[in-house]
Amino acid sequence: MRIAFQLKQHVFFLVMLVIGSMMLPALATFEGTKIKCIDRERQALLKFKEDLVDVDGFLSSWESHQNCCKWRGIRCDNETNHVTALDFPRLADSARWPRFNGKISSSLLELQRLNYLDLSYFPINATKFPEFIGHMSSLKYLSGVEFEGAIPQQLGNLSKLQHLDLGGSYSTNLDWLYTLHSLEYLDLSTVNLSQVTNWLPALAKVPSLRELHLRDCDLPEITLSSSHPTMMNFSSLSVLDLSENSLSPHSIYSWVFNLSGSISYVDLSETLQGSILDAFRNISSLSYLDMSYNQIEGSIPDAFRNMASLSYLDMSYNKLEGGIPRFLGNLSLLETLSLAGNELYGDLPEVMKNLFQQLEHLDISGNRLNGSIPKDIGNLFNLNVLDLSNNQLTGTLPESIRRLSKLESLYLGSNHLEGIISEVHLFNLSMLRELDLSFNSFQVKFSSGFVPPFQLQSIQLANCKQGPQFPEWIRNQHNFSDIDMSRAEISDTIPAWFWDLSSTKLELLNFSYNQIYGVLPDLTSKLSSFPVVDLSSNNLEGPLPLLPPSIWTLKLFQNRFSGSLESLCNSRDLPYLDVSDNLLTGKFPDCFQHIGSSFNILNLANNNLTGSIFPVGPECRLQSLNLRNNSFDGEFPQSLRSCRDFQVIDLGKNKLFGGVPAWIGDDWPSLVLLSLRSNGLYGEIPSSICHMTRLQILDLSLNKINGTTPKCFNNLTAMTQEQGLTAIDTITSYGKKTPNGHNLWWKQDESAIIMWKGVESEYKSTLELVKTIDLSSNHLTGGIPNETTSLVGLVSLNISRNFITGSTPPHIGQLHLLDFLDLSRNKLSGVIPMSIAQLTYIAYKGNLGLCGKPVTDTCPGDEVILDPEKIGDHDEEDTLITTGFYISLGLGFVFGFWGTCGSFLFKKSWRHKSF
């Protein structure tokens, strides 16, 4: 019986196999002919391709003998075979869209059933929107190209349109919108609507609108009145983006927050200025609210407690003040809360205890919050991001932090936290990717066998003690792209294994201000493209390392590197190089003629370099050049004339000779600091130097310059203003983003060595306040121009050790910010002006023709013969001049002097701010 049953099974199987094999060709034929391109439409697509330059080969599958429904980016209807969609998705091997040049052909009109046309990220060179698109009446989805010019009115013919995205540099009115009765999604971001005063009534005529994006449209102010009742008829609107405009809060609140209960998403970032009105009380449907980067003042309004549906709230970078209200803890659906960059204060534990367990993203950085981190912070077990950086938090990091097992980013930098960070805090944080404990007083101390459960991408531990040995736990980390362990008290070599950990990903490496010693290896294969490397202020020695072809920033100053600059020749792109304060020798290698144009900031100061300064090409982009205190010789480099972006140039303490070129003021219009101190320069000061209207520091001292002081110094605009410019602070490398999205620009820590009261001093943080002219120790003749008294912003003026003649300008006392004035060892004569008495530090020594205080008590001719009739009795002398007067004068001096100067002695921050 069983055998018979099995025999039947085998027969059935064989029969089905035969039937299946017979059907396979038919099925294959059916599948092959189910969707077949219509020839007319294939030819239209080929014409479309013909007018394009396909940079990435995206259209390589578009061949005339093939079924166009199988082409890349084409979709057809399964039944009618008509082309229904033309879409250009991202390239499979990257995150970017394909690139094309050429024009969009009107042959697309042949695609009569086309309902989906997406040409977004389709950078075709054209100056006009293709008007024929307004006749493609089947379109339901249109995402346009970023053309210039006006949007054609013909778009109003597309009555079936449901989705329209025309973000670009167009200008338009909105009269064509009223016929688009099916439109649900509209994005006109970056379209210039500045002249469309009726933009709100025009949009209100589209009753089906659900999603509206008007980012950066330069929208005119909203004018609400009873004559426009349609303004409120947005019954279907649920998503609204008005970001990056400039609108008054009153008009926005009156419109937006009187919409129906359907509104759920509102983006008003970079749009508003003023206080938050009580406009949120009736908008309980809102789940997403972004009001970041505005000028909103006041406290967080109590009306927010009614926004029970809110899951995302971003009010970062405003001017909010006061405490964080407790009612935020009652918003039970809130997942993201960002209040960063405000002026909020208060005790953090009082805030945290009222927060909610479902919160995933909490950012309260950049405020004035104080107190300690609450011990029960581990209760927020759903947190992915916790950012408490840049506050005034104190105390230690609670061990309960280890319960945040979902935590991916922990930012605690720039507070006043202290204590030991051990594996007890971190052993359960397996999801952690970004760790910032920098600029606190932490000590990171892991046991020798600890293997972290996480793989960090960002390691920010600046100012955290980890030494003296190099941290062994780093050996387990293989995915980091940036690491900062500056000021970590490491007194060790960088182990060889470190350079192999993250060589293809490393974007930022900062081990500065330690005591790291040893020789750096060949870095050509150890670093990724465009990294930022800072190993300054250590004890590294040996030659400069070989570098990869493209390195964004290299800071090796204050080490003991020796040898030549030859190893830099491997780099083709090196915008920021600082190897100052080392033991480098030799001349500029020939390669600097080529890589010199890549420098944006170059600092080789305080080495032993010789020879002439390298020539730069016409593409020079130098902003800062510091070659101070070397032995460079030759005349002033003419090739520097092409560097028209200069803001800082210091060639002091070298062996340059020749004249100061006449073109210097015309070709360096942005110069803020010019120091040619202590060279062998001669000739006159060119009058073109007065064209440097931004110049704040001019030092031509210790040369052989002759002639007279230019009378045009009053044209140095920056010195005629008491407030300092910030031009020096703006010097950065050219901005670039890494593949991970990190910004790789690096701010220049610009400094200047200035002779101040006979002592060379370095100024950094207060450099923008320093305005000085030093022309001392030259061969200048003539008088002090009266125009000099217009430089009311000067804090130091030194023209000593010259051959200046004549008298001191009578109004020199109006330079009331002068802290140092040195006119000594000249040939000045005449009376010292009384107005100069208010100046702080004055040197007149060596001018034999001068008289008057403080040099002499009197001047010739001061003895006046008194009229006997006006001489009274001694009894009629001024009764105020008594013994008590002199006692009061003495006490006033004591208390006045020590009340001011004593404060500087005991108040360190005042001394620093006042130089």
UniProtKB/TrEMBL annotation:
It is a single-pass type I membrane protein. Coiled coil: none annotated. It comes from the Eukaryota. GO terms for cellular component: plasma membrane. It is found in: Cell membrane. The chain crosses the membrane at residues 12-30, 885-906. Its main location: membrane. Residues 39-77 form the Leucine-rich repeat-containing N-terminal plant-type domain. Keywords: Cell membrane, Glycoprotein, Leucine-rich repeat, Membrane, Repeat, Signal, Transmembrane, Transmembrane helix. GO terms for biological process: defense response; response to other organism. The keyword ATP-binding does not apply. PANTHER family: LRR RECEPTOR-LIKE KINASE, LRR RECEPTOR-LIKE SERINE_THREONINE-PROTEIN KINASE FLS2. Belongs to the RLP family. This is Leucine-rich repeat-containing N-terminal plant-type domain-containing protein. It comes from Buddleja alternifolia.
